[in-house]
Amino acid sequence: MRMRHIRLLAATGTAVAALALSACGGDGTGTKDEGASRPVSPTTTAGRTPSATPTTAAGAGTANSTPVTRTHAPGTRTGGTRTTGTGGPVVLCNGANTTVTARPVSRPLNHMLITVRNTGAKTCELTYYPVLRFDEMQWAPQAAKDTQPQAVTTLAPGESGYAGVLLSAADGSGQGGTTGHRLTVMFQGRTPNSDGGPSATPALPAKGVYYDSSLTMTYWQQNADDALNW
């Protein structure tokens, strides 16, 4: 009877020990089970990959970017014709749609005024400056850079544009002086030194026009005073 009681106590102790080990998750060695759960990081959601950092769409501005402002000349260009903001066509002024005169003036001294009048039905532009050639002249006179206007000289039908010409130096410092009897006025296109169309040959005084190496002209101007006072 005593022996049976001892065996019952031993069995009960073994069961209690097994329950204790199971509750602690241990294996009896004091080492924690490798499969035990770990706390989830507050920045990560269990079972889901964090979303990528948002990217800026192509062309979108950033917070510290500086806006770019672009300015455009009014109207659009198609070939040799420009269209104004109101839809009206603008063509180049040249010998085909204008009348051109060349008149020596008394003041300023040794100057000549070239006048171009738009005789066409469309608005036209005088680009850059006139290219002048007396008789068979073999050199090209240059324009005075400081006479370049802020905007292209534009002529509505019936309006006129102007260019002033310094024919010779007042102090006699010019070289190769000669008298020209025929003047050709050539027009430039929408890029420098390009062909702007038919030239013009305005009449000169019967005695001709004296010029020397000082020969210089202005850019095309909207009024005659600007063409002569430079």
Task: Walk me through this protein's architecture.
Strands 1-2-3-6-8 form a five-stranded mixed sheet, with no helix packed on it. The protein has a four-stranded antiparallel sheet with strand order 4-5-9-13. It is an alpha+beta fold. Residues 1-80 have low confidence and may be disordered. It has helices at 2-24, 224-228; strands at residues 76-78, 81-83, 89-92, 98-105, 111-118, 123-126, 131-134, 153-155, 160-166, 178-180, 183-186, 209-211, 216-217. It is built from two helices and 13 strands.
The SS-based structural class is alpha+beta
Which spans have pLDDT < 50 for at least 5 consecutive residues?
1-80
Oligomer: single chain
Total number of helices = 2
Rg over C-alpha atoms, rounded to the nearest angstrom: 46 Å
Share in helix = 10-25%
For the record, give the distance between the C-alpha atoms at the N and C termini, rounded to a whole number. Answer: 140 Å
Query: In this structure, how is the largest beta sheet organized?
Result: 5 strands, mixed
Q: Work out the number of β strands.
A: 13
Kindly estimate the percentage of residues that lie in beta strands according to DSSP: 15-25%
The side-by-side strand order for the widest beta sheet comes to 1-2-3-6-8
Shape: globular
Output mean pLDDT: 75
